[in-house]
Amino acid sequence: MKYLYNFGISQDDVQTERKALDINDGDHLICIASAGEVPLNMLSCSNIHINAVDTSQSQLHLSRLKMAAAIHFEPEEAARFIGYLPCRGSERMRLFRHIAWNFTREESNFWREHSRLFVKGPIHLGRFERYLSMFNWLGLRILGKRKVQKLLDFENVEAQMDYFDQHLDSKKVRFIFNLAFHPKIYKNRGMDAQGLRFSGERNIAAFFFGRFRSFCTSTIARDNYLLQLSLFNRILFKEALPEYLMEPGIHLLRARKDQLKFYKDDISEHILKYPEGYFNKYALSNIGDWISKEEYFNLMTNIGDKAPVESKILLRYIHYPHSLPENLRDTIHVNSSLADVLEAKDRYPFYSIIPMYIQRTSGNNEAPRNI
Questions:
Q1: Given the DSSP bridges, would you call strands 260-264 and 332-334 parallel, antiparallel or unpaired?
Q2: Strand order in 28-32's β-sheet?
Q3: I need a labelling partner for 272 at 20 to 30 A (CA). Which of 47, 55, 296, 302 fits?
Q4: Residue spans of alpha helices (H) in the chain
Q5: So what's the pLDDT on residue 191?
Q6: Could you tell me the mean pLDDT of each successive run of 10 residues in the chain, 371 residues long?
Q7: pTM (whole model) above 0.85
Q8: Would you say 191 and 128 are in contact if contact means Cβ atoms under 8 Å apart?
Q9: Diameter of the chain by CA atoms?
């Protein structure tokens, strides 16, 4: 099956990004666009300038579609259109016609050619989301939807931990994980092979199940939209929508919309197109899982050459933590103690987190500047 994009949603928790990067008004952030949640959520929480970069044109189309929906629709209407909440396909098509004028001819043609995306909602048609939905369905059938949904009834994580250990940590759930993340099934079907290039021979199913417990127990489940989408393919509590679709975030996003730009580009090359000191915050997602050692070294070298002192970097990974190039170890430093704190409360804790900062004895000390 051909997929239009790999991810219908970005899984990076913007609250983790904000803390790791020490976001302040006026910062200049460069990030991976992916499915759009990171730049959209970030702008709705912080008065900053953002370059969201991706090499996938379809992921950029999806990101801009979400932004247009947030700008022109009321929060719940936008959430239904995007797919966080249920909505008839005919209603989504009507809503799309209402915002179609925002898009380039290329973008409009893309959405019209793939109008099936509006039946379930664009966030549900990514490769990863379509794959997981099969096993969500299986899990809910085996365990019973009410049994899983009860996880959202609790008001503290201690109660969630007890409930998970007593009712959800079972041979049946482990069987589903072993099936879903069996390397011969997961590779190419659930994930682009490039994203698994460093997965090696480890038991991915066991790794993901271990992180699944944290996913279900480290944050209040009824407040975690990533958890609700993963378990039920929709948001069950409107109060748990992403920040850019909530009050006051959606209004702040509208007011700051000109401060977010999307670019089809390689992020390492994009950094070189701006003056030294321009970007001082870097949200790299798990790019290291997708690129070679040489490409990673080149990216970090460009950051080290361009970023001002006290710049912050956040890198995530599932499969492989690249080491820093030897020549940058006196420039880019890892904050390991902060990583432990952030991972403990991340709303999608399948990633390990590497917060970094720039500190050098000589070189560029300039603050970010406009161009």
A1: unpaired
A2: 260-264, 49-54, 28-32, 281-283, 312-317, 352-358, 332-334
A3: 47
A4: 14-21, 37-45, 57-72, 75-82, 89-99, 105-113, 117-120, 127-143, 145-149, 157-163, 171-180, 183-189, 204-217, 225-232, 249-255, 267-272, 293-306, 336-345
A5: 59
A6: 86 97 98 98 98 97 98 97 96 95 93 91 93 88 93 96 94 90 72 58 81 95 96 94 97 98 98 98 95 95 97 94 91 96 96 95 49 41
A7: yes
A8: yes
A9: 61
Q: Which DSSP category does 124 fall into?
A: G
Q: Identify whether the C-beta of residue 318 lies closer than 8 Å to the C-beta of residue 286.
A: yes
Cβ atoms 71, 95 nearer than 8 A: no
Per-residue pLDDT, 361: 63
CA 200 – CA 210 distance, rounded (Å): 18
The structural domains of the chain, with segments of one domain joined by +, span 127-238
Using omega within 30 degrees of 0 as the cis cutoff, is the peptide bond preceding 183 cis? no
* Type of residue at 169: D
Q: Which residues pair with 28 in a beta bridge?
A: 49
The Cβ-side half-sphere exposure at 187, using a 13 Å CA radius, reads: 12
Q: Give the separation between CA 184 and CA 198, rounded to whole angstroms.
A: 15
Helix axes 57-72, 75-82, angle to 10 degrees: 150
Q: Where are the beta strands (DSSP E) in the chain?
A: 28-32, 49-54, 260-264, 281-283, 312-317, 332-334, 352-358
Residues in Cβ contact with 174 at an 8 Å cutoff, skipping those fewer than 6 apart: 205, 209
Tokens found for residue 118: 């509006």
